[in-house]
Design a protein that fits this description.
Blueprint: H1 3-17, H2 49-58, E1 66-69, E2 88-91, E3 99-101, H3 102-105, E4 110-111, E5 135-137, H4 138-153, E6 156-162, H5 167-177, H6 186-189, E7 215-222, H7 275-289, E8 293-296, E9 299-305
Parallel strand pairs: 4-6
Antiparallel strand pairs: 1-2, 3-5, 6-7, 7-9, 8-9
Bound molecules: ligand LVM2DEV6 and zinc ion.
Site (Transition state stabilizer): 165
Biased composition (Basic residues): 19-37
Protein name: D-alanyl-D-alanine dipeptidase
């Protein structure tokens, strides 16, 4: 059986058996297959009664995937023996059935999945983004689809920069923030803020709504969309709060800053943002609020759909099409 066939078989078996995902743990690797629970930085609201029912009934489907891989014992810390073992069972988490690809729900929504590229505030692709695909809970994807249907009639399209974000990606952000020597993307993404303040100031969260699956980073594009050029690693960086003609080109509407601009000018209601830029921010927020999304005040691009299907869970399956079933 190919590894991912094994993953699917394992998931389906887990689903049938009703085994609780928290019980699945690989004693050798320490790998966990379940979502984490914990504190979080953004406000939350209780899940809808339907969502609670759904969560209970589908818990067993939460992703236990088992693949057989070879792991040399010489690299395993804390091993009791250095004698070679023939095989090792590793665990790779997959998504519960409430998750889907955004493309399968609405292929017209543009996707520029930044964290799968080097054009990030870290300057490298982020851990866990194996493919540039948007994964979301079905309720959040359906709400985006409703917003998109209305926007298309007005000559606009949504464009997502980030969707579900695995905990391992958030952990990558945390490791990066602890390294003061790495300032390679400061000039573009956080020119006026020390990287040690980015969590405290609300621009990045150690427990992110994105890991719960109902949060998106999103903007608006005027149709027909202009072509966008790719980022070239090593290119000259321009502050994200510079004028639209100077900063990194993006085919989206001018929101007053670029995406992931960690600066007070990116605060959604910053009074310095006026005229067309204010109208663009307000258009984006109104379109999404009308479908149940709530904006994060520090970032004009960050929205969480409420009620969340998983208000207390922090998933860690990789961003890849094969993490979700059947799409
Ligand atoms: C990092 C940025 N795109 C973002 O999503 N920030 C919020 C606060 C988060 O990390 O959840
Ligand atoms: Zn976000």
């Amino acid at each position: 059986m190919r590894p991912f066939a094994a993953l699917r078989a394992a998931r389906s078996a887990g689903s049938r058996s009703g085994a609780h995902p928290r019980a699945r743990f690989c004693p050798r690797s320490g790998a966990r297959s379940h979502a984490r629970s914990g504190t979080r930085s953004d406000a939350r609201s209780p899940a809808a009664p339907g969502a609670r029912r759904s969560r209970r009934s589908r818990t067993a489907g939460t992703a236990v995937a088992i693949a057989v891989v070879l792991v040399p014992l010489s690299g395993v810390s804390g091993g009791a023996s250095r004698t070679a073992a023939p095989a090792h069972t590793a665990v790779e988490p997959v998504a519960p059935p409430e998750f889907t690809t955004l493309r399968s729900v609405d292929p017209t929504i543009r996707q520029e999945m930044r964290y799968a590229t080097p054009h990030t505030f870290l300057g490298v692709p982020v851990t866990g983004y194996r493919e540039p695909v948007c994964l979301l809970t079905r309720s959040a994807a359906a709400a985006l689809h409703r917003a998109q249907a209305r926007l298309l009639r007005q000559g606009y399209s949504l464009k997502v920069y980030d969707c579900y974000r695995p905990q391992r990606a958030v952990d990558h952000f945390v490791r990066w923030a602890k390294d003061p020597a790495d300032q390679r993307m400061k000039r573009e993404f956080y020119p006026r803020v020390g990287k040690e303040r980015l969590f405290e100031d609300g621009y990045i969260a150690e427990r992110s709504g994105h890991s719960r699956g109902s949060t998106v980073d999103v903007t608006l594009v005027r149709l027909p969309a202009r072509p966008a050029r790719p980022y070239v690693p090593g290119e000259r960086l321009v502050p994200c709060y510079a004028g639209r003609e100077e900063r990194f080109p993006d085919n989206s509407l001018d929101m007053g800053t670029g995406f992931d601009c960690f600066d007070t000018l990116a605060h959604t209601d910053d009074p310095r943002v006026r005229g067309a830029r204010r109208a663009n921010r307000d258009r984006l927020r109104a379109a999404l609020e009308a479908q149940g999304f709530v904006n994060l005040p520090e970032e004009w691009w960050h929205f969480t759909y409420r009620p969340e299907s998983f208000p207390d869970r922090y998933f860690d399956f990789p961003v890849a099409r094969r993490s979700v079933a059947g799409d």
